[in-house]
Design brief:
The chain has about 250 residues and is of the alpha/beta class. It is built from 6 helices and 9 strands; from the N terminus they run E-H-E-H-E-H-E-H-E-H-E-E-H-E-E. It starts with about 25 loop residues before the first strand and ends in a 26-residue tail after the last strand. It binds 5-O-phosphono-beta-D-ribofuranosylamine (GRF).
Amino acid sequence: MGEVTGPSEVTRVQGPVRPARAGEPARLAVLVSGRGSNLQAILDACAGGELKGLARVEAVVSDNPEAPALARAKAAGVPRVEVLDRRSFPNRAAYDRALDALLAEIDPDLICLAGYMRLVAPATVARWRGRMLNIHPALLPAFPGLHAQRQAVEYGVRVSGCTVHLVDEGMDTGPILLQEAVPVYPDDTEESLSERILPVEHRLYPAAIRFVLTQPWRLVGRRITLCEEGVEGARGTGDTVRGAGEAFDGCK
Ligand code: GRF
């Protein structure tokens, strides 16, 4: 597939996302705001799980100086642990510029939002399009935004789950990479549903990272579809690891 381009060039929306330093693990930057259990799952997967040898966490960036995720990053020996305290910026635009500059300086191969509680500014989204992922604790497009599990319980759905998607300019609106469902029971609370979804998130996020780093995927419309690499005009397998799409002819 095509080469990964630098952040200042036109970014592709296809995979596999290859490390800028060929032969080395992809360098991840993980953006956090809080607890950091998804960060931990990514760190563990890089250390000895399904991302071993494939990815390493180069940087963790938090907009919250009190985020417990920061201690997890330090304990794991992440080379760069950065705080952009949202309260220390005069306004939103100043914060957005600082984050954009920091990410450009870190220059990761892939950015993972993991409980990062802010919308990423459109200019930054554009720079990293196809190389920025987010995890959301609902089956999007249902229940975007805050308190997704509470929204699901209050709505009365019988099934919810989690979604890993590419980040676009909207709130949890980007193209979907992987989803996994969990049941919702009549006596569920926001807490009990969150507890059921969380271990699934911890499996799904590393799987999605592995997917974008290893699979010949391509964005067609809103759909992430697999191509058979090297086959001229190959039809997509339609298999996006979990969940089937239709085969298509767009992988020339
Ligand atoms: C997770 O449920 C994630 O899906 C959502 O925020 C929560 C973050 O949890 N975006 P943690 O900080 O990864 O433990």
